[in-house]
Design goal:
Blueprint: E1 2-18, E2 21-41, E3 56-70, E4 79-93, E5 110-111, E6 114-121, E7 124-132, E8 136-137
Antiparallel strand pairs: 1-2, 1-3, 3-4, 5-8, 6-7
């Protein structure tokens, strides 16, 4: 957020969803203040890893306030001469998971070796995905 003033505040919130369930959230507030108004930029950057997980949506909401404040020499209340507020919203999605193994014809003669990966936040399972080898002829039984 670019601003001209002697007070600016940027509030940013990142929320990660799996379907409609919120699985993680981060929120931060940045401020800049001084006696004299200046041209400047206030930025915020943070991230939350979701590893190899798929099917997640990340939503970012930001709001900024810019003010030109007069501070009385003798003390007392600060007077806000001018103020501007701006809001922004963005989101991003990871691609959906590949079909889980075993969803094809169970009677064909192709075999795959698959690893199942499970992702937890705390003790809550939030995602499960598979990594499989290319299909090959099944070994004789």
């Amino acid at each position: 957020m670019s601003f001209f003033g002697n007070f600016a505040e940027l509030t940013t919130q990142l929320t990660i969803f799996k379907g409609t369930q919120e699985v993680a959230s981060l929120s931060q507030v940045r401020t800049a203040k001084g006696l004299l108004p200046i041209y400047s930029r206030l930025t915020d950057e943070f991230s939350r890893d979701v590893g190899q997980a798929c099917g997640h949506m990340a939503e970012v909401v930001g709001s900024g306030a810019i003010e030109l404040r007069a501070i009385p020499v003798s003390g007392g209340q600060t007077v806000i001469i001018a103020g501007v507020r701006d809001d922004a919203r963005a989101d991003a999605r990871q691609p959906d998971c590949a079909p889980r193994p075993g969803s094809g014809n169970p009677y064909d003669d192709q075999c795959q070796f698959c690893l199942e990966w499970t992702w937890y936040i705390g003790n809550t399972e939030v995602d499960k995905t598979y990594q499989c080898s290319p299909a090959m002829s099944c070994p004789a039984q």
